[in-house]
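Field reference: sequence -> structure
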Amino acid sequence: MKCPFCGFEDSKVIDSRATEDNMAIRRRRECLKCTKRYTTYEKVEDIPILVIKKDSSREYFDKSKIINGLIKACQKRPVSRQQIEDIAFEIEKSLSNEMLTEVKSEDVGEMIMEKLKELDEVSYVRFASVYRQFKDINTFMREINNLLNKK
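Structure field:
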């Protein structure tokens, strides 16, 4: 870390502590040449994830879109807001851990459906009916039969 006063490239850390939101580390440093003190912040670098939509357009990943879709699918079901937010967080974390810069919207949808299938089958079928764009009752019945056969 270069000293902001003299440009010397070596310093020692005097104090380290987490910021109030625990999203960064605040470090007090002292330049080993001019002995002036300064503060630096260290935080995890977020790599923005782009979602490739069906029409090949791209947009930034937005966790709130997942939450809104789940709220609609889980309406009047015994699923808490915390469970919905946990699913969205797990999907976001999973994508970040894979160090992907782009992901297909279909892959995100499949991840959501896998989580919903474990949580609440009715919400799963609701989400699947919109996500997979069920055209008729036969498609709907096939999905329900697949769900029953896997049990």
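Note: The helical segments are 63-73, 81-97, 105-119, 121-131, 137-150.
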